[in-house]
Amino acid sequence: MSHIKPNLEEQLLTHFGFSSFREGQKEIIESVLGGHHTLATLPTGSGKSICYQLPSVINEGLTIVVSPLISLMVDQVKLLKSEGFKRVTALNSLLNFKQKSQIIKNLDQYNLVYCSPEMLQQPAVINRLKHIKVDLFVIDEAHCISQWGHEFRPDYLRLRELIQALEEPTILALSATATPEVQEDIIKSLSVDMKRIIYPMDRINITYNVLHSENQLEKQEQLHTIIKQVDSSTMIYFSSRQMTEQISLQLKQQFPDRQIAYYHGGMDQQDRLLIQQQFMHDQLDIICCTSAFGMGVNKNNIRLVIHYHLPPNLESFIQETGRAGRDGAHCVSALLYSKGDEAIPFQIIESELPEDHEIKQYLSQDRQDTMDFLTETKQRFLEYHSHQLKVNNDISELSIINKLIAFRDKRKKVKIKSVLDMVQWINTEECKRKRLFESYQSNTREAEFECCNSCGFNIYDWELERTHELQSKDNWREILDEMFYRGV
Amino acid sequence: MIYFYHILLNMLTRLAKQRTISSAYHILRGKKSSQTLQDIHLFQLQPLYGIYPDLKKSTYDNWIDQLISQQFLLNTDDTFSLDLEKVGEIRDISKSFNGLIYNNFDKEFLKALKLLAQTLSNISYGQFRFIPLIDDMNIQWKVKKIIRENESKQDWLINQFYQELFKCLDEVDEIQAEIFVMQLSGVNRIGYSRKQLAELYQVNKEDIQLTTMNITHSLITMINNNPNQFPLLHSLIPAHKFHSITVSAAKTLELIQQGYSLEKIEQVRQLKLSTIQDHVVEIANQVIEFDIQQFVSESIEKEIKECLARTSTRRLKQIKDELHPSISYFQIRLVLAKLNQNEASEIINEPY
Ligand SMILES: Nc1ncnc2c1ncn2[C@@H]1O[C@H](COP(=O)(O)OP(=O)(O)OP(=O)(O)O)[C@@H](O)[C@H]1O
Ligand SMILES: [Mg+2]
Ligand SMILES: [Zn+2]
């Protein structure tokens, strides 16, 4: 680092065009620039990315960002590139061999490289990194390290070895959903001393609502009423792909004037990109989506986030509602709950973890690359845990099986408890906001607008009118003229 | 609008009783196998080759199931038949398709055109920062190159692109032009997906795909025929990709041109003779200037042609049975390939 202390505000303005820091950003940036390993929490949408993006342009060496979701990574890189940052790239499984080699070869030319944890296990990547000056090693969504976290990713546990191999660059772990327990776990897993910069994770501009219903029909009526009253940028989350399509079709029939589309992981890449960008450009009013449309989405004027199904845990709920109101203005979260809805997340848990016979089959397979009978999440789970166990080579096959089953059951317990916590939150008559954030922080801040339905907010009294006009040109000549600024 | 249903029936009537039901699927996807490449020549389906590269098997099967449930189609073990009376008149609306010749670069051309449109639209409003809607790195690179080369005359570039595109689209059907333009993205405007257009026009997603491909082929033909009128769009067509033979066949061709015999190639490449022969048939199908005289003498060629004129079948076994036993399948296939090529080149050279 240069010996002249850079004026951070000036740097922020030149590189990102923001005139001042938001709460917490400067403190975190100063901490990492000062070489302190840092664990920081800030609410969703508060601007955690700047906390490593700015250091990456100030530092001489490389900044690596580990990110759990490929789509999130790709979106961030696209956005940065579109803002004129050239020395940024992503290393992930979407690249073909040639592209990957090219990036690895030129790794020292970049300021900022987003990486999937899997990619950081590859010898070619590790060896190259050993010969490069890595200044900052960022773990975004760091709760993925923790066994107690909702999104535990075994690959994250291997980061420690890598960091040690790199002669300890400064580490920055970021999260918007890390309880004190999870924070402990993160620090323990990385086995370094970390300075904690813990900001409250609650979102003061979101009003929380839970609407109970007796059955799906009543739920659909609730949805209809809310959509009718609120004509503004809206996301509706579902836990099944099929339901996104079904409800989006239904809403289109009910609201022919609104622009509505669905988005899920089963769509092809080009369609996903188009729909996402249409939504970002306010060409769509309502998007019916699964959690595949989530973390990467940074649209500032989303006013309403509806959960048609309950998410599998409170952290996902916080992440997903966190898409709303990123401009700081008022926004609303509405979770629609029918008794028995928890059956879906319970089913998903069952399908995510390997069953006894799958564990046995996995271990009896000698070629571990023909695992078609397992879903990807099951594979990942088995691969990591059996690898850890086999490091002890005097362990018998039977006891490996038993240990894997024990791991599986432990994981299942954590997940089931998360769903039960979610249901408990849904049913509480206490302040929703307080209960939502109580495991993260001792005090919840006062809501900036209305608080929640327990505190007297009635979503049926809430109306919003459309503020933007949808373009209506459909004559191709006019469209072309407008596109290329002819005769406008 | 080009309807998938019409295209499908069109293909199936030609393939009925001769090929399996999935042969049409492979043709639409542009499978690069000797069998499929041979089929398109035998049944004169060259224009439709590879016009739907991302057609899903499940989608295709759905269409077939529908035909079966309407009792238009009967699937048997190794082939299928169509009830032509029930089906009614089958219109040939595949006019401007040119799949065999274009399938190697049409997608690339379309992507480049879309990205150039998005880029120039943004630039025309003074916007230099936007998220490209085409992810393909090679295409991005290509478009950047065009922008860079014309840095000093950006206004000219925008105007030129606009004029060329306008002129092209003016030539196709109004509805086609509309469907094409609706898919373009520009400043503050993101194009519609195929699915969304299908909803808007109340047709199937497959119809939008084929219609888009059809316009694309029309544009390519127009541009290729008048490169002077469309210099900018012409530069988006890669010049070197006009042949579509498999990589492996290309190697075989190279060796033949160096004077190797088929037996020698068999040794060098460690492939079965039958595979090498498949290559030669593929080459004979694709490469107009390829001469088959070294494998079929003039008199045998004449004999085969006469037999073909006599019998109307395209089933090899029947043809073979009619001929002298010393004439091989390989020779028959080569003659067929050349014959088809002449017919094909007539189709291809038709004006759009
Ligand atoms: N200092 C700032 N001034 C104004 N806007 C800012 C500032 N810092 C960040 N932003 C903007 O805030 C938005 C959210 O930032 P970012 O995506 O980094 O949030 P995040 O904390 O990572 O959220 P999440 O937890 O949802 O991932 C971005 O649009 C970003 O440009
Ligand atoms: Mg973030
Ligand atoms: Zn409250």
Automatic annotation (TrEMBL), chain A:
One of its GO terms (cellular component) is replisome. GO terms for biological process: DNA recombination; DNA repair. Residues 222-368 form the Helicase C-terminal domain. GO terms for molecular function: 3'-5' DNA helicase activity; ATP binding; four-way junction helicase activity; hydrolase activity; nucleic acid binding. Keywords: ATP-binding, Helicase, Hydrolase, Nucleotide-binding. CDD domains: DEXHc_RecQ. Residues 29-196 form the Helicase ATP-binding domain. The keyword Isomerase does not apply. NCBIfam families: recQ_fam (TIGR00614). PANTHER family: ATP-DEPENDENT DNA HELICASE RECS-RELATED (PTHR13710:SF84), DNA HELICASE RECQ FAMILY MEMBER (PTHR13710). This is ATP-dependent DNA helicase RecQ. It comes from Filobacillus milosensis.
UniProtKB/TrEMBL annotation, chain B:
Residues 248-336 form the Helicase Helix-turn-helix domain. Transmembrane segments: none annotated. Gene3D superfamilies: ATP-dependent DNA helicase RecQ, Winged helix-like DNA-binding domain superfamily/Winged helix DNA-binding domain. InterPro entries: Helicase_HTH, RQC_domain, WH-like_DNA-bd_sf, YpbB-like. GO terms for molecular function: 3'-5' DNA helicase activity. Residues 8-81 form the RQC domain. GO terms for biological process: DNA repair; DNA replication. It comes from the Bacteria. This is Helicase Helix-turn-helix domain-containing protein. It comes from Filobacillus milosensis.
